[in-house]
Amino acid sequence: MHTAHIHLTTFCIFSADILKRSQDIFSDVHGDFCDIAKILARFDEWRRTFPDSYNNAYISLCLPKLLAPFIRHQLIAGILWRYAEEDFEALPWYSAVETFCHGQGHEEMENMDKKTLPAIIEKTIVPKFKVSFVELAWDPFSHRQSQSLTSLCRRLQEDYSIFSTEKRKPVQSFLESVSERLTIAVDEDVFIPLYPKKCLEDVASPQCKFRDQQFWAAVKLLENIGLWDNLIPEHTLKELALDKLLNRYLIISLLNESNVEFSAEQCKKVAACFPKTWFEENEILPQLKNFCSHVLQTVHSVCKDDVLTSLFIVLAEIGACDDLTAVVEKYNCKHLLDSLKLF
Predict the structure, then answer these.
(1) Half-sphere exposure of 68 toward its Cβ, with a 13 Å CA cutoff?
(2) DSSP label at 161?
(3) Cα(97)–Cα(63) distance, rounded to whole angstroms?
(4) How buried is residue 138: exposed, middle or buried, by Cβ count under 10 Å (0-12/13-18/19+)?
(5) Alpha helices in the chain, H assignment, sequence order
(6) Per-residue pLDDT in tens (0 to 9) along the chain, 343 residues
(7) What burial letters (b/e) apply to 266-301, b meaning 16+ CB within 10 Å?
(8) Inter-residue contact 195 to 254 (CB < 8 Å)
(9) Where is the GCF C-terminal domain (predicted)?
(10) Which residues lie closer than 8 Å to 191 by C-beta, 6 or more apart?
C-alpha cells in the first residue's frame, strides 16, 4: 500500500475517534447549560426584563469567555482543514450569537452586545485558527492552502475589522505565527542547487530537472508570501520576499541560466509575485536593483544588433527575402535592414 494512502487512512481513523469522543464532553451537562442558543436565551430574557441591571453587569464583556468552551467544542472538527476553506459561519454557534447580538433589528443602535460577535471571533476563533491551521496544518509552499488562509483573514477584516491598525494580542500572536512559519520556510526549506553550466545544457538531465523543480518551488513560496500583503507588515514581507528569498536564492539561479528565452520567462514569473502596492510610486525598490540589472542585461543580450545582423544575413543568403521582410516589419527593424543593404 502506498505510504501516502497509509498516512491518510491513519489520519482519518484518528480524526473519527477524536470526533466521536468529543460528543461525550458535555454528556453529563443539562442541555440548557451547554446549548449556546439556550444559554443566550436566558441572557436575552434578562436583557429584556431588567435592561439596567443587565447593562450594569457588563455582560457583553463576559460572554466571549463564557461561550468560548462551547464554541471550541463545535470547532473540534476544524482539525480537518475544511473549516478554513468552507464557512465557519455556518456552524450553529454563529447563528445563535449573531441573533443575540443584533436583536430584532430596531434594537441595533442601542444593543451593547453588538460587539460580542467580533470579540468572539478575535478571542476564540483566531487563536483556534492559529494552532489548528497555521502551526499544525498550513504548508507555506501550498498555494491552495495559502490562498484559503489569506482569503479567510481578509474576510475577517472586512466583516469584523480584527486586522485593523491597533491589533489586539490574539491577532498579533496569529500574525507572528504566520511570519514565523514563512521565515522557517525561507530559511530552512528553500534549496536551489548550483551546477556547472555544462550539466544544465541537457534540459532532460537529472540535474537540470531537479534545479528547475527547486527553483519553481521557491517561486511558488514567493507568490504565497505576496498573498499576505496588507495583513503582515510590509517591511516584514519585503525582508522575507526580497532580502532573503529573491536576493539570497532566486537571483543566483537566474544569473546561472544560459537560455535567454527561459530566463525571460523566469523573470516574468518572479515579477508577477510582487504585490502591486509596492510599486504605487513607480520607483524601483532598493532590494530589486540586482534583479533589475539582470533583466536589463537579458534585454541587451536579446536586442544586440550583431546577433540580428547575422540572422538577417543568413535569411538573405538562403533567399528567404519575403520572410526577412515580414520579420523586419513585425519587429520594427527596418533601420538595421537598410544599413546592411542586402537587397
Answers:
(1) 15
(2) -
(3) 10
(4) buried
(5) 3-22, 36-49, 51-56, 59-74, 82-85, 92-102, 116-120, 126-129, 143-160, 169-184, 197-200, 206-226, 234-238, 251-255, 260-271, 289-302, 305-317, 321-331, 334-340
(6) 466 667 677 777 877 777 777 777 877 777 788 899 999 999 999 998 998 999 899 998 999 999 999 998 888 865 554 544 457 888 899 999 999 988 654 354 456 788 899 999 999 999 989 988 899 889 999 999 999 999 999 999 999 988 876 668 999 999 999 999 999 999 999 999 988 877 777 888 888 899 999 999 999 999 999 999 999 999 999 999 999 999 999 999 999 888 888 888 899 999 999 999 998 887 888 999 998 888 888 877 776 666 667 777 766 765 677 877 888 888 787 777 777 776 5
(7) bbeebeebbbeebeeeeeeeebbebbeebbeebeee
(8) no
(9) 115-250
(10) 214
